[in-house]
Structure formats: C-alpha cells, structure tokens
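Lab channel / #folding
Pinned by the channel admin:
"Please post every new chain as: sequence first, then the structure tokens as a reply. Keep commentary short and put observations after the output so the thread stays searchable."

First post following the new format, from NK:
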Amino acid sequence: MESFESQYTLSRFSEMCKKYSDKTAILYLGERFTYGRLETLIDKFATGLADMGVKPQDRVMLYISNCPQWIIANFAINKIGAIVVPVSPIYTAFEIEYMINDANIETVICLDTNFVYVKEVMEKTNLKRIIITNLADLVAPWKRVIGYMFDKIPAGKVEKGKNIYFFTDILKKSWPRPPEVKIDPWKDLAYIMYTGGTTGFPKGVPGNHIGEVSYINDIMEDVIKDYIDEGNDTVLMVNPLFHIMAKGFCIAFGFNYGNKVILMPVPEVDAVLSAIERYKVRWMLGVPALYRMILESDRLDQYNLSSLRYCYCGGDVLPAEVFKTWEEKYGIPLYQVYGSTEIGHVAYSRLDKEPRATTIGKPLKTRKSIVADRDTLEILPPGELGELLVTSPYTIKQYLNKPEETAYSYVRLNNEIYYRMGDYVKMNEEGELEFVERTADIIKYKAYRVSASEVEAVLQDHPTVIGACVVGIADPKVGERIKAIVVLKEDAKGIGSTELLRWCRDRLAPYKVPQYIEFRDMLPKSKVGKLLRREIRDEEKRKLEKEKKKPV
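Reply from TO:
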C-alpha cells in the first residue's frame, strides 16, 4: 500500500471495494449493500454531482441522518474533489442559514423532513441546488410500503421545482463514470465540520485529506492491526456520522478493513441490542449515555451480547460506575477514544492492556501531545495537572473566517502551533493521558478545584436521578459555591435536596458536596447529546446580577 502521505481517504476504501466486492459493506434496516454495489452507487452519484455543476473544492452540505446515502454522498463528494460539510439533521433553519453563508455552500443534500428548512433559507443564501432523500429510499420497496403503513418512516412534504433534485433520480440517470480529478492531499480540503464557538456562533473547522488519513492510518497500524479480522469483522455504527469521532471510527474499523458495518439511523436501545445479537457484532462505538441506557434497560437480559469483544466509548466523560458495571456484566472493558473536531482523533486505549476509567488513551503517533500550565503555557513534567495541547504536521491550524477564535485556540510553542484542547489532564509515566476535567468545568471552591462531572456522576448514581448538571456560582468569600441542577425519574417520590445532599456527603469529600440543589424537568443538551453546562452557568450569572440590582 502506498504511504499515507500520498493518499486521500478514498484510496484505501477503493482497494477494499475491489478486494471484497461480494462481501457486505453496509447492513441498514435489513438491506445489504456489498462493497461492489456501494462503489457503483458512489461513482453514479459522483457523476451526477459533476453533471449538475459541482466542481472541485465546492462545498456540499450533508444534512441527513445515518443511512447509506450519507456514506455514498460523503465518498462521492470527495471523489470529484469537492468538500463535505456534514451537519446535524436536527439543526433548524436559523442554524443552517448561518453555516451555508459562512462556508459559501451552493449544494445541500437533505432529508425530505428537512426540506422545509432548506427552502426557507434558499433566497437568503447562495444555494444553487437541493438534493432530497428519505431515510428508506434505498431499502426494498416492500419494506418502504410497510414502513409507511405503520408510520415507522418519517416523511416530509416536498415541492418540486427548479434546482430541486432527488437522490434516487440521480442514481438512476447517472452512469458510474465520474470525472478523474487530481487531489492534493495536503492542500485540498476534504471537509468542513462545525463545532461550538465562544462567541455564540459555530466555528467551521476545515480539514484536509492528509489530516484525516494520518489519524486513520495511526488507528489502523498502531491500535487495531493485530486484533481486527480484515474482511470478516462486524462493526456497529450508531453514533452520528456528522461527528468526527464516528466518521473516523467507521472508516478505520469498518470500510478500510473491508468489514461489515451495521448502520443505524437512531440510537434506540432495543434496536441496538437486537443488532448486536443478530449480526454477531464484535466492535462497537458509543457515548457514555448509550452504555448507561443499555445497562439500565429492563430487557437487557433478553439479548445475547456474547459476540462483543471491543467496545469503545468517547464524546464525553466516561463515569467510573458505567465503566465498572459494563465490565462486571460482560467481562470485557470499555476502551476509550479521545479527540476533537479541530485536531481529529488524538488518543486511544490500547488493546494490549487493561484500560482504566480515567485514562483516555495513549496519543496517536501523528498527534504530538503536551501538558502545559493553562496561564503561562509552560510545559509540565509527567504527573503534573495542566491543559492538554496537541499538534500535528498534517492538520490545518485555523478556523474558517474566525481570526479571533483562531488566535485564542491555536498557540505557538517552540516553533510549532498547538491546539488548546480545553481539558485538564495528566500525562502518566507510561505516556498515557489521564483525564481530570474540562477547563470550563472546574469549580474553584476556596483553595480546591472541584470536578463538576465527578459531582454529577455521584448524583446520577442515585436510583431516582436521571440527569444532573453541576456549576459554580460566584461568591466573593469562597470563589464559587457548588450548585446542582437535578432531574428526577417520573415515578420518584419523597426525594428532596436533603436526601441527595446526604447521598453526596456519603460519597464525596466535604468540599465537593453541593451547597444548593434545584430540581428541573430537563437539562439543556447539544445537538450531539452533550450536557450544556455553559447555558446553566450563564443563566445562574444572570440570576446573580438580577439579585444584585434589587433595592436593599
């Protein structure tokens, strides 16, 4: 195989399509797509995009859920040298309007249920064309009929018109002969992904082909090479592909090894458990919330999950209780994957040793990682707590149209530009990263640093609590006081703050116990399911300012 420095993402995948043309690449809602069929569909769609005027380095928004069309479109867009802009299918018109204008997007591929949002912003943007699909477009007709009859397939109202195309029509009309495009893996962008911004607007993160290939190659060569069964393994993919963690995992563990990917549109626990049992899944990626939901399912023991061997977890802090319970239940550990949109995949638990809940893995070889003092950026020795900074010679080190955000997040040290991960970590003697807390989520109480997620984990272990958010409330005497926002189960009775405070005191050092507990019906979450502590924190700040302004 040619060196990864000269490749782009589609190279290795194309090799697998030829080597394993008759093997299953994707299983989706029971529909089988072989590698040969998938390659043909990609070539057809690439041809159709080029014929309608999509040119190299044009930006194409991928505004759909996990489905074969996502995979087909992603590879097809890159095949003609264009740039994929994957976004959450639950974004609103307001959100996609900003991104379309920010990234100068001319083409949107959307679900029929999202068409109304795209149509709403078409005249406010430079959009030239909309391509529409349905989640069940590529499954057997009889399955679609049954799905619609029993209202299992969501469908939106679509108005035909100029510059409005249908995904399936493009596949029917196009020959699998896309134009040959020379791609520079260093200079040409493969994608632009959006992530949260400190100014309130999302930040576009441009990624080149070599940046993506470099970490995928690291994973394949240094993490899973001796454990994966090329051409015969099965990978469950339920995490949203618009997120860099899921996309990279799917390519590295699935397509680049010619393996079978079980693709799921939504993370429904029973469907996940059924798929693991039915298809003998060996590899799985999930967020902590998914593993917790599985463990709490009252139907868990009805499924045989004995095929599972390697379960990776990422995207958020892994609670120690989830880590411990999973291993006790199945006799296999939860390994971790860690990274960010800006730098790609950074660290993985290695499969040749037992992982720990607090250890997020060993940095990949193309991701140079250091721990530095947050204020002075002085590099700290192993064992010292500081902010994690990461660099790679292969990545782009700036945001799209955001010079101020770029200046804050990317810093120059020893003639190299590092990205500030925003997490407090320690580097142990073995070179592994031990996660302590996100920098924004450390509460400073008196002389102590309190981990918000640690307190949240203790609260969430209470049998009546289904969600908790812990924030610091400014106090001139002690720095910050600890406040917990708690969501109880619907059938919880007789549980108040006194009971929960007693629970915390039994499990936490005195300085970590919340001073206030407030009960709510729900907590704010991001599009990918992460807890938005910042929203709660900002809300509490506003309350505090309002109290200060009241007449004495």
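NK: The mean pLDDT is 91.
TO: also worth noting, DSSP finds 16 helices and 26 strands in the chain.
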